[in-house]
Amino acid sequence: MHIAPGVKAVEPRFRTGDAVRIRGERWTVLRQTRHSDATLLEVRGADAHNANAAAGFLLPFESVSALISPSTPRPVSRAEWRLIARQWLASATPQIDSLRTPARARIDVLPFQLEPAIAFNIGLGCRALIADEVGLGKTIQAGLVVAEVMARTADVHVLVVCPAALRIQWQAELHQRFGIETRILDAAGIGRIGSTVDGTANPWAISPVIVTSVDFVKRPEVMRALEGMVWDVLVLDEAHNLASRSERAAAADALAQRARHVVMLSATPHSGDADAFNRLCAIGDRQGRFPLLLFRRTRTDAGMPVQRHMHWLRVQPSPGERDMHHAMLAYARRAWLDSTGNQAGARLAISILLRRAASSAVSLERSIERRLALLRSEGPLSITQLALPFDMAAVDDDEPLAALAFPALKNSDEEERYLERILSLARLASGDESKVRAVHRLLGRTREPLLIFTEYRDTLVRLRQSLDLRTRRPLIAELHGGMARAERADAERSFTAGAVEVLLATDAASEGLNLHHRCRCVISLEAPWNPVRLEQRIGRVDRIGQQRRVHAIQLVAAGTADFDVARRLRQRAARAADALTQPVTELDVADAVMTGADIAEPSSAPAGTFVRPDLRDRATAEAAHIDVSRRISAPAVLLPPRPVIATSRRKPLRQVILALELVLSDDAGVPVWSMLVGLGGPFARQIFGSVETAVPAIAWEQHAQVLAGISDHVVSRARTTLEPLLQVAATRERAIVTLVRQRHARIAADLLQAGLFDHRTERRAAAQTAVLEEALGRCNARLDTLARLAGLAAEAPALRFAIVLP
Questions:
Q1: pLDDT, mean of residues 570-574
Q2: Beta-carbon contacts of residue 754 (< 8 Å; ≥ 6 apart)
Q3: Given its phi and psi angles, is residue 548 left (phi above 0), alpha (psi -120 to 50 degrees) or beta?
Q4: What is the mean pLDDT of residues 776-805?
Q5: Could you give phi then psi for residue 718, rounded to 5 degrees?
Q6: What confidence score (pLDDT) does residue 263 get?
Q7: Which of 176, 187, 411, 692 is 20 to 30 A off residue 753, Cα-Cα?
Q8: In 262-285, which positions are buried (b, 16+ CB within 10 angstroms) versus exposed (e)?
Q9: Residues 54-61: what's their mean pLDDT?
Q10: What's the whole-model pTM score?
């Protein structure tokens, strides 16, 4: 196209769906974006040789000719019209802040799961903690947030940080449920990127959605590579692991400070430590300016009554086991009141021995042997003080060797005599254990797949050996913390595919297990000292999608500390009605068992700065709209570039119904949202008159005032709706800019002090300046986008489908 000097070309205005010809090929217009000196026309191929190919052309430097006026309707049959109308209606959203992605997602839409995404869409906040009970779909809720942000954001960057064992599961969930492609980044993943792209490219900016592990991302050299990034969404899975003062927590908070939306997931947000809970609530905040939105729902809150049978199966110990438990409890109570210098360490050691005794005689035998060896060793202990209260979130299925080294009695000879007696009794009891026999009986009475949990790995090995020798169902797999990720995946796959009938697992390997499609029966070999741990075990099978009644069988050794723990936990669970009351710690349980007292009454809701939004009505309405959209959708039908019209053969034709599309664009002409407006009555018949005479375009000018009134109303409502969201988003973005400037974009460790006459200082400073400019460039681009959104304007309405009835 030739443009005379000094003459500005008038660029034609195209609508989404227009058919155009460019360079001899047919294309369908996707969007037209105005810039200062040119316009970008984004199109999709519509010919046989360029079908579905995406391209962009700059106007006025390309010659573009419209093939068919978008206002000229194409007559179709009533059947075809119904399909096209259904698809238009199914793809429409009623409001600018309505959810756009759940209707297409492969999920069963439950209203409560929509609430976090709704909260972000309407501008209630930018940080959320989803702390629902186990099995209520926290991953789905986070996926909905990610999908919604991606549907509204260009050049999006999302980071999912989770335990290493859950990376593949996150990748699969986002792909299967939402069609979101992700890239897993670890040392090997970054190496693969480096061999295929320019070595100067930031691997964290290559893919829109990246999944990584918390232990990888916390490394200083990895954090250094992240300094130029600003995340549209940061998802922190198993967030309770980030409440301590650790490198993990510091890395998570540093990343969250750079995120526009922060989503934390944890079924156990409060470990009993109020300070830790406060630290969790503060992740990603800036001086209390961004309140945390807390979503904590039980099955009852979610409208899903608990349909499970809890069986507390009392197991009678053998005489040898009974003597072992009595001796262990006598030693524990004596030591609890008469501990030597380090009382906290001694009590921790005693509680571990009690839990090992409840697990198996083999476990207790091994720990007593180790404890005797440690207490008899010469030289000072090189063991640091262990934190109390005990961390219920830190799960390790191996023997806690370090904690066994603290003496508990002032008289060391007396303590050795206690331990020697317990050791001899444990060796006698390990030959024939009552809980192992109980498991054999249960296996003989059921023909269903079974999931069996135990706290310790050595107990699992003992149980596996016994089952291999005696059971008639040899198809057994195991999951524990000593297995590699691939081994765990193979074991889980064998069980879910039906290749094995029994899965033995420890709590250390239970994160992310979704076994509800295969199994409904869970057996716990010992009572966990926290009800949350028991709920997590049962939650592996009692999840959304479980079609049968769940059976949870808890084996309890009668007349032992194991029985006392189970009784007290059942009482405490019955009294704790609030979903966020102060939880029980393992220290609470140990103190109750040693003193004979009940566990303390639950306190009020824990401290922490958070807001619990009530979005039930909005979520119910959104779910109803999604349900209608799914029912009327005709996925096989593509939306045509031209409007369609169906006319009844009966005369006279009196009723006219028009569906007009209003497209709202920002100040740069980028489409933001579109809605359908239905018109009928005399006004519709007047407009239809020009259609009936086959005029190339509808004479909208004759009714400009009425149509302008409709457009002004839609724009005004959209601006009002967006105002809270834009305010929160702009405030958050400016806070990120301030943080980036203050720290000169650094989130990794400070650079080393350079030596005298060392030119590395200059090179490092120049490199950091480039990183600073990269981060600020992302922030400024976001602020520009938000500013343009404040200037929404509506284009002239376009007819999409019409029908004429008698």
A1: 62
A2: 760, 761, 764
A3: beta
A4: 88
A5: -65, -40
A6: 97
A7: 187
A8: bbbbbbbbbbbbeebbebbbbbbb
A9: 87
A10: 0.81
